[in-house]
Structures are given as C-alpha cells and as structure tokens.
Design goal:
Largest sheet of chain A: 6 strands, parallel
Strand content of chain A: 15-25%
CATH class of the largest domain in chain A: Alpha Beta
Oligomer: homodimer
CATH superfamily of the largest domain in chain A: Queuine tRNA-ribosyltransferase-like
Radius of gyration of chain A: 20 Å
Shape of chain A: globular
Number of domains of chain A: 2
Helix content of chain A: 40-55%
Structural class of chain A: alpha/beta
Number of helices of chain A: 15
Largest interface: A-B, 41 and 41 residues
Strand order of the largest sheet of chain A: 4-14-13-12-11-10
Chain lengths: 379, 379
C-alpha cells in the first residue's frame, strides 16, 4: 500500500550521504535523484517514453514559462501538468522567482511582490508569493517551491534585504498553500556564500516548517569551495526526516559532492543544454561530438554506457547528424547525458546502501580529474 | 527458415490490389508498405525505436545526401547504412538522380552521366550509372535503384531523349550491380504522362529484367487523373511476381488509389515534412495544430488513432509545444503522421486478404471527401 504522501523514509546513511524514499502522489521517489528540466512542459528533444526508458523518475517544469504560455489555467483545465505533458511520475515546479529575475525584465520589486515584463511579448505581469502558489496549485506538481528573491551570492547588503523578504514570503507561501494532500511545499534556504546568513535562513525556515527544504542561490557564479562549504554548514542543521534539494546543480562533480553533503534531489539544464550543443557528458568528462576526430569513429560515446544511444549509435553517426543539423542528434545526446547523471545517482544510492559511498565517490572524482586534461574528451 | 532473398510471394489479390511478402536480407517485408524517408540517414525528428514502435518496416535513405555527407565510404567503413543509422529492418536507397536534378546545380548532362555542384558547399561532382550503383553498394541498402534522368512530365521532346538515356543507363546499372545476393536493383519506368512512352519504358525494362520495378516521374506536378491513368496503363504490363514501387507518393488518397492499381511500395517526405510544420494527417484530412481553436482542446488529434501521440497528448499540448518551438512537437506529429499512413497500408493489406478491398477503399475515399471541406481539419 502507498505510504502517506510526503513522508520521507531514510533507508541508509553513510556519513552525511543519504539513501531515501520520498512518497509522492505519483509514486515513491528513490533518492538521491537527478531531475531533468522540462522548462515549457517538455524535457527538450525527448519524449516522456524516452525519459522513462533512460531511468528518469522526477521531472522539473518551470512555473514562469507555463504561466506565460500556455497559461496555468489552460494546464489546469487539461487535467494538470501530469496529464498535459504525458508524464505520470513525480513532477517538481519551481516558484517562477528565478526566471523572473533572470529572464523577465523587472519593473518593480517591493515587499508585496515583483512586477515584470514577459520575455515572450513584453506584456506586464505581477508575481507575489500568493500568486506563485496559486499558479503552482493550478499546475499540480507533486513538489512545489516557495517564491523567493534571487540576490548575487557575494553582495552582502542586498542579500540581507533579500533574505528577510524571502523569509516573509516563505511564511506567506505556506499560508497560501492549501492543496497539502497532493502537493508538498518546500522552503528555500538562501543567504549567498555567508555562513551566518545561511544558518539564520535555515533556522527561520525550520520555524515555519516545510515537508522539504531546498538550497537556493548556489551554482550561480560562486566558487566550488564556497558551494561545498555552504552545504557543509547546512548539512547538520537540516532535519534528517525531510528531503533536501540542491537547486540548479548538475555536473558529475557537483552531484557527487552534493550527495556527500547530504543532498537528496538535484536538477539542472546542463545535460540537456549541452546535448543540443553537441557535447556528450560522461564520467570521463565532456566530449564535443562536432570534433573532426570523430568523423570515422565507430565507437559509442562511452563503451561502458548502457543507454539507448551508446547501445546503437557510433560517434561518427552522432557527428554526422549534428553536422547535418538533424533533430536526432539532440535527442540521442540528451538521452545519453541524462542517462549518465541518472545512473550516477542510482549508483551512488547503491553505494550508500552498501556502506561504501566514500570510496565510490573518490573513485568517480579521481577518474574525472585524470580525464579532465585528456584531449579526446575536451572540447 | 528465411526465403531466398528477393523472392516476392503474392499472398492475395483483389482485382488489381495485391498483398505480398518481399523477402530481403533484413527480413520479410509485408506489402503494401509505406516507407518513411530518412534523407540523411535519419527519419527527421524520430529515433529508430520510435519507428519500430509506430509500425514502420521499410525506411528510405537518399544516396545523393549520404554520398556528399558523411560520404558513402564512411558509411561503408562503419558497417553500412543499417549499422550506421541503427535500423535493422529493410532499407531502400534511391539512385541520387532525383536530388541531382532537384537540389544540386547541374553543370552538364551527357550520355555518360551528370556533372553537378553540391547544394552544401558548391563542390563539383560527377554521377554516372556505374558511380550511383557503386555508392549504393557501399551504403548497403536492401533495395537499390537505377540511375535515371528526371524530365518534366509533360515535355514530350525532352522526355523522349531522357527516356532513351534512362533505358541505356538502366542497362549499365544492371551491369555494374554485383552485390546481387544482398541487394535487389529495381528498374524505373519513366515516360511522363504519355501512355505510349510508359509502355515502351516498361517493355524495355522487362527485357533488361530486374527483381523489382519502380514507377518514377509521377507526383511531380501532373494531375491526379494523369497519375492514375498511367498506373492503370502499367498495371497489366508489370509482372505479377515482382514488387512494384511508386516513388515519392504519400497522401492518403494516393496510397489508396495506388494500391487499387497494384502498387506494393510507397515513400514520401510528406508526412514527416508536414509534421515539422504543425500539420497532422488523418483519414479525415489535414489539421493545422497551430490554429488557435486548439488552445484548450483536450482531445487527441484523432480519437480512433492508436499511436503514442494520440494515446498520451492533447491537441492543446501539441499546439503549445509548437508555439513554444519545442522539438517534441515535431517528434509527436511525425509519429502520428507516419502511423496514419503505415496503419492505412496495413489495413489495406487486411482488406485485400479478406477480399473486401474495393469497399474499404471506397469508404476511405468517401470519408476523405466528406471531411475535405470541414473547417476543423483544414489549414
């Protein structure tokens, strides 16, 4: 029988690394997990069938994009995001905040919310915490996010102002969140690269209390040591019985380092975006398939990879279809790149359960650094 | 046990319509059959896995394109087209002739062959009957075609010259064709819309003798009555024990009329090209998914269709993903359009075997004409 929605079972831990199961209305989600990004209600270049086949279990969609087009009311009328996009596994939506800051043109920010212009047609819109939650409830994802304010990670003055607002908005988001049996609202820890602000943020969010906690404002330009130190600061403060989501992170190196610091959920556009630009990711690094050296190369991207692409297609074919601007090139590389990250999170889970995560992580990271300087996997 | 390659078993006939099995080194091909076009070694916007799933059995690839890029030597070195493109069912290649005439810039035509400039980089190339067969033997398709000369269907003077050359080239192609156990060479009947030239062409090709016969130079601007009359003229002249391939034809109406006139094999870019432009084909006509009327339409393209697209996605979703310029829109419509034509050929086969082809064909054609003027399926 299905567990009560949104309980998080900790199956095993290995130092800070965690193997868990997060129960959602669309199935039990095994963690650690990497979520492909389906910005406009589709993970670019692949079908939901491809996603299931390559092992995806959780998909992210963007509230900002779907609110603007086709409209959350349309998605709701069509049965919600799961029906709309043909994905019956768990879905996570962000709050729209990040995109308002990075894509829209901001007209005004105040304590009430944000006024911005659409990146599609310039039309003017207003987003408040209440509005973000209402949109996300219309979309109907299993995991929804608090509306927060994005600040430069090293701008202390602005971060302090944004942080207070983010906490006030988190309180309002929780108030606005009514569909609690079907959707879990996650709070977002902010505070840039400042340890004390991060601590204050997590304490404040724990007071409000959420079914899960996200770490925002990382992987936005700060150094790797800064990112990993912040995760180290947060790890003992976050409750063990709630899932932890590191937003926007998706390199092999960061996934391994994130899991080592207790992260359960990741998402990132990197594997799908790189795929559309001809780059294959593997545990050995990055390979640019447009390179002339692959013109007659009969090997798959990665001899050890079990994805559909590596089982059926050569580097020469991928290079040819990229050069010829064929859609299949983006599809096949997307399948490979997502499979790489998703099978990595699955392998990490097994290592945690087997109590050998540290040696597994060291092996992956040293492999990466050995290959980082080899010409045949650099772009 | 597999039959001797390239025997054609006639399973049933119903007036001129035929249900057959063409034995190839990559499997027994049930006819009538519609072949999706994979110009550059991929059927645009779908994977071979999608193709198998939607019921495709035969795929066409273009000699002209693959010769220019990546080069037939590269494809050969990588194990031939089947390995290269990840398709282990039967493949058909054209001769390159049609594309030289329609895409390349012709520099000179003489009895020996054609000199042309590449549409990709302007480089100069020469194609002769011997060269076309050598390229096609490198590519390794199961069915290969004679190199012929394309002429305007109603230009009698030019057609007569081109026809003599086409017959001389057919003789040279047969001479050059050495890989006879692995590849079947088809002759191509030409002669435009002139009954007597068509008769002369088929008689000449029968003297040379091929394992199969194609009808070329139709669906290139002539009227439907002209096309159907030519097929009526050829039908009793073509040998019953060889497959018949009507090149470049792929509307619902033409497939039904072609099968009624004894055609076994069809190919056309129409369903895949229309898909990438937002048009869904069905037995009820053509539907432009970009139309605003579909903005909130929860129905699939065709309630009766069993394809992946119609089983999982609404018109509203297809419209949204087209508007948002997402690749999945082209993929899902390609799946639907190909499934429509391929399941139509399968249904025609069943009707022929059951001896009820005429009533089946009439039903399809009258359905088409009823819907042709309805606004919701017009563009």
């Amino acid at each position: 029988m299905a567990q009560q929605p949104f309980t998080f079972d900790l199956i095993a831990t290995d130092e800070a690394a965690r193997a868990g199961v997060f129960h959602t209305p669309h199935g039990a989600l095994e963690t650690p997990v990497f979520a492909p990004v389906g910005t406009q209600g589709t993970v670019k270049a692949v079908t939901p069938r491809d996603l299931s086949d390559l092992g995806a279990t959780l998909v992210l969609a963007n509230t900002y994009h779907l609110y603007l087009r086709p409209g959350d009311d349309v998605v709701h009328e069509l049965g919600g995001l799961h029906d709309f996009m043909g994905w019956d596994g768990p879905i996570l939506t962000d709050s729209g905040g990040f995109q308002v800051w990075s894509l829209g043109q901001i007209n005004a920010i105040d304590d009430e919310g944000v006024t911005f212009s659409s990146h599609i047609d310039g039309s003017r819109h207003r987003l408040t915490p209440e509005q973000s939650i209402a949109i996300q409830q219309n979309l109907g994802a299993d995991i929804i996010m608090c509306f927060d304010e994005l600040a430069d990670p090293d701008n202390l003055d602005y971060i302090q102002v944004a942080l207070e607002r983010t906490h006030a908005w988190a309180r309002r988001c929780k108030e606005a969140w009514t569909n609690r049996e079907r959707q879990a609202l996650f709070g977002i820890v902010q505070g840039g690269i400042f340890d004390d602000l991060r601590k204050r943020s997590v304490e404040e969010l724990l007071r409000i209390e959420f079914p899960g906690y996200a770490v925002g404002g990382l992987s936005v330009g700060e150094s790797k040591p800064d990112m990993y130190r912040i995760l180290d600061v947060l790890e003992p403060l976050l409750p063990a019985d709630r899932p932890r989501y590191l937003m926007g992170v998706g390199t092999v190196e960061d996934l391994v380092n994130g899991v080592a610091r207790g992260v359960d959920i990741f998402d990132c556009v990197l594997p799908t975006r790189e795929a559309r630009h001809g780059a294959a990711l593997s545990l050995h690094g990055r390979m640019n398939l447009l390179n002339a050296r692959y013109h007659r190369d009969p090997r798959p991207i990665d001899e050890a990879c079990e994805c559909y692409t590596c089982q059926h297609f050569s580097r020469a074919y991928l290079r040819h279809t990229f050069k010829a601007k064929e859609i299949i090139a983006a599809t096949l590389l997307t399948i490979h790149n997502l499979h790489t990250l998703i099978s990595l999170t699955r392998a990490m889970r097994e290592a945690i359960v087997a109590g050998r995560f540290a040696s597994f992580a060291n092996q992956i990271l040293s492999e990466l650094s050995i290959h980082a300087n080899k010409p045949d996997v650099s772009s």
